[in-house]
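Researcher: I'm preparing a figure for a lab meeting and need a structural model of a single chain. I don't have an experimental structure, so a prediction will have to do for now. The sequence is pasted below. Please return the structure as tokens so I can convert it later.
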Amino acid sequence: MFEQYTAAGGQARLVAFGQFGSDSHSMFGSRAGAPIWQPEVSKLLASVGMPSEPLIKYARFGKRVMMDVPPKTDFAEVFDETKLPFVRDTGRAGYKLYLTKLTPRAFAIAPNGFWGWADGGDDPLQRSLNNCNRKGNAECKLYSVDDFVVWKAD
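Model: Understood. Here is the structure written out token by token.
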């Protein structure tokens, strides 16, 4: 597409960002990918005279602040559902399904065995906690975010 577009007179610059996780297409939906592609988009916008940096006068239209991503822990490998604390077989099956979803995603668990996950959209971390806390007695904690485990054993 790039070659055909430029051969027909279109102005374009092809940027190959390289590998990102298990599917590079997920880079644009992942918070971890934004620092990779956003500078290139900002350069393009600036080159055509469009705003390329946040402007204070538009701050009221911005998204609400999302949860910070907790640091990766060494509790378990992300694909090892046998390490999930508290959950029963249905929770392990839910976690396996969660692992098939594209990032951004998050999985939360509660001491009473309830769990919840969310993917895509705004703030999947908070949404996974909300989903879990519907029956998790407000005790849910994040277990996994994107492609790593963030769980800390008490």
